[in-house]
Amino acid sequence: MSKRDLKKYVSELKKTELEEQIIELYDKFKEVKTYYNFVFNPNETNLLKDAKLKISNEYFPIRGKRPKMRRSVAQKFIKHFILLGVDAFIIADVMLYSIEIAQSLSSEKEINQVAFYKSMINSFEQAVSFMIEKGILYEFKSRVVAIQRESETQKWPNFYEFNAVVERFDY
Known about the structure:
This protein has about 170 residues and is an all-alpha fold. It has helices at about 5-10, 15-30, 30-40, 45-60, 70-85, 90-110, 115-135, 135-155, 160-170.
């Protein structure tokens, strides 16, 4: 069904029929329920706290297991926040936090996985691009530069790529 067809269908419904359908969607689909819960109670502080807790648990597990270091956990939160329409500052904060927590682990424990460093530069590039797109890079510049410097301090094999990203927006 195209959007045009959907608009036509919705316009032909009576108000009560439309209300019933929305309630049914709310009951049937978790995503719809999540969306409406956020729209009517946009508690971004709790969303941010929950995201940071789960991301940090990937690198510093609470139950004493070894860290999983999955970038995908942070990416799911970021994608979810974007879909919900969460404030860009909060999304940028989560993006940078996921890299910062990974750097914290890296400073304590040597990581010999090339994929780890590749995923961190991908996250860094995405975060900087997102902040440039939203016009909020200036507010996060000190954290971005700190991440870049930390990659160099820890002698990450791809620290020069972090430098290149910062040099692009620095001039």
